């Protein structure tokens, strides 16, 4: 299936902007890499916001300052690559008008988010309104980045039909963004920004993560999600669910009004990085399984 092969490439990498093959590739692979980059943009909006809030909370400032620098640079470079192409990555300039229009629509939101991010990067020792601005601008940037992905999928996958395997890979990939989003919302609540809104958002993010984990393990025929196709994938999902319980308990407590302390910030920071890694490994396992199935 053409769409499955493309989606497999979409979810095969994360944060590795220099990992793409530079030799000439077919149109499907080029399109897959474009969607990969566009999909990664959504996560980067949440990663930047999470890093900014942890800086503002004086929690592992050096670590999150470096994270903010890396995420903002990658977002900016990726937006330019998607629009103008990048010969070193063997990615041509975009020519589809509908995609170009959505990419253009990202720029105003990114300019605002980038402005606030640059201020914080230059003066992490005195966070203030820059963190507030990042809280205000990250969701519009996320929403518009998602519009780019959806437009690419419509343009690139004309005439194709989604399958259960494609749906499963998409759901697994979305877990990575949710991991960043939950940590961001946890921090914004503790920081005192739009507390009630972020409490409700965090409850929804927890629920989305829970449901997706169960769907990926056990399947859901109504949603067209098959159960985990191998013992190893099921085991990895079970391990992720087990490891999720510690941060999940903290998130629920904060969402329900408990005040976070330094110990909770430390736990979330450490577990968040690990969960992101685990989620990415699960995506890779699923991609490899379904790609092998298609080539048999």
Automatic annotation (TrEMBL):
Main location: membrane
InterPro entries for the chain: NarX-like_N
Alphabetic keyword roster: Membrane, Signal, Transmembrane, Transmembrane helix
Protein's UniProt keywords contain Transmembrane: yes
GO CC, alphabetical: membrane
Signal peptide (UniProt feature, chain positions): 1-16
Subcellular location: Membrane
Topology with respect to the bilayer: Multi-pass membrane protein
Superkingdom of the organism of origin: Bacteria
Domain NarX-like N-terminal: 34-127, 161-246
Protein name (record): NarX-like N-terminal domain-containing protein
Native organism taxonomy: Bacteria, Pseudomonadati, Pseudomonadota, Alphaproteobacteria, Rhodospirillales
């Amino acid at each position: 299936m053409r769409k499955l092969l493309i989606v497999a490439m979409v979810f095969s990498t994360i944060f590795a902007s220099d990992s793409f093959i530079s030799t000439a590739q077919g149109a499907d692979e080029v399109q897959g890499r474009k969607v990969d980059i566009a999909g990664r943009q959504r996560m980067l909006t949440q990663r930047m916001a999470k890093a900014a809030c942890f800086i503002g909370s004086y929690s592992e400032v050096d670590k999150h300052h470096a994270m903010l620098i890396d995420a903002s640079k990658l977002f900016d470079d990726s937006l330019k690559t998607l629009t103008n192409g990048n010969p070193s990555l063997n990615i041509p300039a975009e020519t589809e008008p509908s995609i170009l229009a959505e990419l253009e629509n990202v720029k105003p939101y990114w300019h605002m988010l980038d402005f606030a991010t640059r201020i914080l990067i230059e003066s992490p020792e005195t966070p203030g309104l820059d963190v507030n601005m990042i809280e205000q601008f990250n969701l519009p940037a996320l929403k518009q980045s998602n519009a780019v992905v959806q437009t690419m999928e419509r343009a690139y996958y004309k005439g194709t039909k989604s399958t259960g395997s494609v749906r499963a890979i998409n759901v697994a990939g979305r877990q990575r963004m949710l991991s960043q989003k939950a940590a961001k919302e946890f921090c914004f609540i503790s920081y005192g920004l739009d507390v009630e809104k972020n409490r409700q958002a965090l409850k929804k993010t927890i629920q989305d993560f829970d449901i997706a984990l169960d769907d990926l393990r056990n399947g859901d025929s109504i949603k067209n999600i098959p159960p985990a196709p191998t013992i190893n994938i099921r085991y990895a999902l079970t391990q992720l669910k087990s490891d999720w319980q510690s941060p999940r308990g903290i998130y629920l407590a904060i969402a329900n009004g408990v005040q976070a302390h330094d110990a909770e910030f430390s736990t979330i920071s450490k577990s968040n990085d690990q969960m992101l890694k685990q989620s990415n490994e699960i995506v890779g396992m699923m991609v490899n399984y379904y790609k092998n199935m298609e080539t048999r």
